[in-house]
Amino acid sequence: MALGFRNLAAVWQNYRDAGARCLIIPSLLDSDDQAELRKAVPGADIYVVRLVAPLAVNHDRIRGREISADSLRWHLQRSQFLHQKLAEQPLEHTTVDTEGRLPDALAREVITRWGILQRR
Prior knowledge:
- The protein is mainly alpha-helical.
- It is built from five helices and two strands; from the N terminus they run ααβααβα.
- It has two domains: about 1-45, no CATH class; about 45-120, no CATH class.
- The chain has helices at about 1-15, 35-40, 55-65, 70-90, 105-115, and strands at about 50, 95.
- Strands 1-2 form a two-stranded parallel sheet.
């Protein structure tokens, strides 16, 4: 995680130097990560979107991509843990349901809710 935040800081600075005003980071965010994220992207307006689907849908997606039994078991357990943790300790500004939706539709909804297009 530490390496990821250092890399993010370098990328963010490069994009800021090129004139970017926003950055979308597709990643899992834990409450412990928020301070590190703010250090990595100083001056950024952080808007957290939680992409959600029913746990059964997440498990089906995991079963479709994991090859080894150990990896499958770990990811299924992790998704159950995160599902409960994020429900108890929400970090997001908004949630977007992903079930049955294509990535471009999800992206449009995220940027609409964030309001970044209106800021130009």
